[in-house]
Structures are given as structure tokens and as C-alpha cells.
């Protein structure tokens, strides 16, 4: 169930992100953590960071020059850091948010009765 929980979490995260905004994408990680048989934080982080990486890749494929210009501008506004740090830092934030949501999903999962 681990790979399917990540895949389902990514689909939910992408769908909710596109339809309602980025904050709703966290629900995909919550579902991935809920369905995970082990390591819900890892599953949640993978679901949200994976879906965010797909969106970044899509944006780079559709409008590469504009995205590179935006990354360079943001990097210079944030203290002169290189532009490639911007998407990497957002992926780190997505991983952390996904891990917390995955932990929450794992915590609300009913305990197995032996």
C-alpha cells in the first residue's frame, strides 16, 4: 500500500492544488499518511513534494524563460542567492508540510485490534 498511498496522495494534492489553491494540497499528504502501513511522515512528504515537483516541472516546460526570470528576481530579493535555490527551498517546505500532514494522517488512522 505504500506506493499506492503516495500515488493517491499525489493525485489528490495535484487536483486540490489546481482547483482550490496550494493550501488544500496538504490534504493529499494527509490521505497518504492515513493509508500508509508504515512511515506515514515519509509517505506524506513524498506525496506533497512529488506533486509540487511535478507542478514546478510543468511550469518550467510551459514558460521556461519567465520562470527563470522569476527565480532570479526572487533570489536577488532574498539576499542575492542563486535562482535555483528558490524551487529547492519550496520543495523543502513542501516536504516538511507533507511530513507533518502525513504524521497527522497516520495518527488519526484507527489502531489495529489484535
Description:
There is one protein chain. This protein is mainly α and 114 residues long. It has one domain (2-107). Helices cover 78% and strands 0% of the residues. The protein is elongated, with a radius of gyration of 16 Å.
Secondary-structure blueprint of this entry?
Elements: H1 2-20, H2 26-35, H3 40-62, H4 64-77, H5 85-107
Helix pairs in contact: 1-2, 1-3, 2-3, 2-5, 3-4, 3-5
Task: Summarize the model shown.
This protein has helices spanning 2-20, 26-35, 40-62, 64-77, 85-107.
- Label the structural class: mainly alpha
Q: Tell me about the largest β-sheet.
A: none
- Counting H and I runs of at least 4 residues, what is the number of helices? 5
Distance between the ends: 20 Å
- Rounded mean pLDDT is 91
Q: What share of the residues does DSSP label as strand, in percent?
A: under 5%
**Number of structurally distinct domains:** 1
Runs with pLDDT <50, length 5+? none
Shape: elongated
Secondary structure tally: strands: 0
The Cα radius of gyration reads 16 Å
The percent range for helix content is over 70%
Amino acid at each position: 500500500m505504500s506506493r499506492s498511498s503516495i500515488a493517491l496522495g499525489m493525485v489528490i494534492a495535484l487536483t486540490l492544488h489546481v482547483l482550490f489553491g496550494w493550501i488544500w494540497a496538504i490534504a493529499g499528504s494527509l490521505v497518504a499518511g492515513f493509508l500508509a502501513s508504515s512511515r506515514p511522515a515519509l509517505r506524506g512528504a513524498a506525496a506533497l513534494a512529488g506533486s509540487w515537483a511535478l507542478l514546478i516541472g510543468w511550469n518550467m516546460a510551459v514558460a521556461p524563460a519567465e520562470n527563470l526570470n522569476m527565480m532570479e528576481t526572487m533570489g536577488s530579493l532574498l539576499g542575492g542567492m542563486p535562482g535555483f535555490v528558490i524551487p529547492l527551498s519550496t520543495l523543502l517546505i513542501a516536504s516538511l508540510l507533507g511530513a507533518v500532514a502525513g504524521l497527522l494522517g497516520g495518527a488519526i488512522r484507527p489502531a489495529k485490534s489484535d
